[in-house]
């Protein structure tokens, strides 16, 4: 085989490898849930600023869940910034419970206790797959505990028996038909929750992991992809945006150009990454 043919064969092999296997993106990051508050008082006021001197713009009743976008201190009180009728509003934190994460029990059975201690009174038992509202993380006697909220108030569970719900974005691939394929993997998604990628729904069907390939089409520079996980009532618990962009570096352009030639001037061959 001539030197020219050997080089061409080597380049073709490189292109085939680049096109047929996953091209790694940047390090994936977990998508945390949107913190939310559960109203615990019979009824509370929503005000236009943090503090009792704020004007009342509405009200909420016990059991209502609202997304929390910020925590503000006013005097000796904590207030939560929320959205009310499309506008910014504030509620008194003493009348609500702030939920920071959703966890799932990963063991056959785990004790729920009144305090973060193995000797504390046992309130009840949670079983594999049960969903828990996590309000805080506590260290006690060398162990890590989650402070959780249930109908009767706060309780504690050992952290190693609970998995936190997360939504990392995985790698991206360039395929022969010019599509960029984004894979989104959901970990510990409770049964009945639904994953949406760019508005397309994928039911969790009670599984703990989702892999959802979504064709994004040909990219020239970059594109944002919205990833949402909604609970059983349709409320967004995870809402994040990943940016998928073309790697315009020298090797990215080289692979794209080689792929363009050897695919009969059809293949875009973008090397992409998640930013």
Detailed description of the structure:
With 275 residues, this protein is mainly beta. It starts with a helix and ends with a strand. The protein is built from two helices and 23 strands. The strands form seven sheets. A five-stranded antiparallel β-sheet has the order 14-13-12-9-15, with no helix packed on it. The protein has a five-stranded antiparallel β-sheet with strand order 19-18-21-22-23, with no helix packed on it. The longest helix is centred in the first third of the chain and has 18 residues, at 3-20. It folds into three domains: 3-32 and 167-274, no CATH class; 36-99, SH3 type barrels (Roll), CATH 2.30.30; 102-164, Roll (SH3 type barrels), CATH 2.30.30.
What would you call the quaternary organization? single chain
Stretches with pLDDT under 50, minimum 5 residues: 3-29, 265-270
Helix/strand order, N-terminal first: HEEEEEEEEEEEEEEEEEEEEEEHE
Rg (CA only) = 25 Å
- From the spread of the alpha carbons, the general shape counts as globular
SS strand fraction: over 45%
End-to-end Cα distance, whole Å, is 43 Å
Q: Structural class of the secondary elements?
A: mainly beta
Major beta-sheet overview: 5 strands, antiparallel
Number of domains: 3
């Amino acid at each position: 085989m001539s030197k020219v043919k050997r080089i061409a064969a080597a380049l073709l092999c490189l292109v085939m490898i680049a096109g047929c296997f996953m091209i790694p993106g940047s390090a994936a990051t977990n998508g945390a849930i949107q913190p939310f508050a559960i109203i615990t008082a019979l009824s509370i006021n929503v005000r236009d600023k943090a503090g009792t001197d704020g004007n009342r713009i509405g009200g909420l009743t016990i059991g209502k869940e609202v997304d929390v976008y910020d925590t503000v201190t006013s005097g000796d009180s904590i207030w939560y910034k929320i959205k009310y009728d499309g506008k910014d509003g504030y509620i008194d934190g003493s009348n609500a419970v702030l939920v920071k994460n959703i966890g799932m029990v990963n063991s056959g059975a785990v004790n729920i206790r009144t305090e973060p201690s193995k000797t504390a009174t046992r309130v009840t038992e949670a079983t594999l797959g049960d969903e828990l509202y996590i309000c805080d993380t506590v260290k006690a006697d060398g162990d890590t505990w989650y402070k959780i909220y249930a109908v009767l108030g706060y309780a504690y569970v050992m952290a190693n028996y609970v998995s936190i719900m997360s939504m990392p974005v995985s790698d991206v691939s360039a395929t022969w038909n010019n599509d960029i394929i984004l894979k989104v993997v959901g970990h510990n998604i409770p049964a009945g929750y639904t994953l949406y990628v760019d508005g397309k729904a994928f039911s969790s069907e009670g599984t703990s992991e989702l892999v959802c390939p979504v064709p994004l089409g040909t990219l020239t520079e970059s594109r944002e992809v919205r990833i949402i996980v909604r609970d059983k009532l349709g409320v967004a618990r995870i809402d994040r945006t990943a940016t998928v962009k073309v790697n315009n570096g020298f090797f990215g352009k080289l692979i794209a150009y080689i792929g363009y030639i050897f695919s009969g001037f059809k293949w875009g061959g973008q090397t992409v990454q998640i930013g």
